[in-house]
Design a protein that fits this description.
Four Helix Bundle (Hemerythrin (Met), subunit A), disordered N terminus, 2 domains, three-stranded antiparallel sheet, 12 helices, globular, two-stranded parallel ribbon
């Protein structure tokens, strides 16, 4: 799966104390551009990891202090997350975390499978030899990250893998749509799921083989199955941790 990872050097800050250290882990990124996007990414990740549980209210001033930035980019980030459906805004109370359901995750995976499948099929027809070589190098590095049990590096390299395929597809609007739906996928969790690194490696190699053969149908099927096969273990993982709710009749 794809997208973003927080900057290195935060493990030490996490050891300060539960909760407080977690909330301060990103205080060093104040000089970076697109600050509201950075804040949104961090808050989104914390929601999916259970740091901010469903029903919790996020205070603008406290979050700004914890991140070492002004209130303005925090407000912009939370408004964006409200638009994504991850938060709701209540007058005089602030922004509350919305509970995701197992059905929500399945819906996201279905959309990813369809859109990602089309992007992969187009990439199979258009990918250059140079891009294919780069993709193989990224995959080699990703496998080493899994072997080294380095989840942050694995998330970053996984993002690079999928990003390169989307670039090769040469379909910017479709890629933009894919990027939007991927925000609802807790990518940082996947490297920690039992059995997922091995599954991901098999799926990625299968896709590379399809791209090498310029087999659009095989590429479409490979990426579609890659997205859908991860739903069950991800859902189980998040339900166990109380991050998402299991709807009546599910599972």
């Amino acid at each position: 799966m794809s997208i973003g990872s927080e900057s290195p050097g935060r493990a030490q800050r996490r050891e300060e104390s539960p909760g407080r250290a977690q909330r301060r882990e990103d205080s060093g990124f104040a000089a970076r551009p697109q600050l509201s996007d950075d804040v949104a990414r961090v808050v989104r990740r914390r929601i999916f990891e259970g740091t901010y549980p469903a029903g919790e209210y996020l205070r603008l001033d406290q979050l700004a202090v914890d991140l070492g930035i002004s209130v303005t980019p925090v407000r912009e980030a939370l408004l964006n997350l409200r638009a994504e459906g991850l938060l709701v805004q209540h007058p005089r109370r602030g922004f509350m975390v919305v509970r995701f359901t197992a059905r929500d995750l399945a819906d996201v995976a279905d959309v990813q499978a369809y859109v990602g499948g089309e992007l992969a099929a187009r990439a199979a027809e258009r990918i250059s030899a140079e891009q294919l070589s780069e993709l193989k190098a990224i995959q080699d590095n990703l496998e080493r990250a899994y072997q080294d049990a380095d989840p942050d590096r694995a998330v970053r390299l996984n993002h690079e893998y999928h990003r390169l395929i989307n670039i090769a597809a040469d379909s910017p609007k479709l890629t933009q749509f894919m990027s939007g739906i991927t925000r609802y996928q807790p990518e940082s969790v996947f490297p920690t799921l039992e059995g997922w690194p091995a599954q991901s490696i098999r799926d990625h190699r299968r896709l590379i083989d399809a791209l090498e053969r310029r087999d659009a149908d095989a590429a479409r099927q490979a990426i579609a199955e890659h997205f859908t096969v991860g739903v069950a273990p991800l859902t189980e993982h998040l339900i166990e941790r109380g991050v998402i709710a299991q709807e009546a009749g599910d599972g």
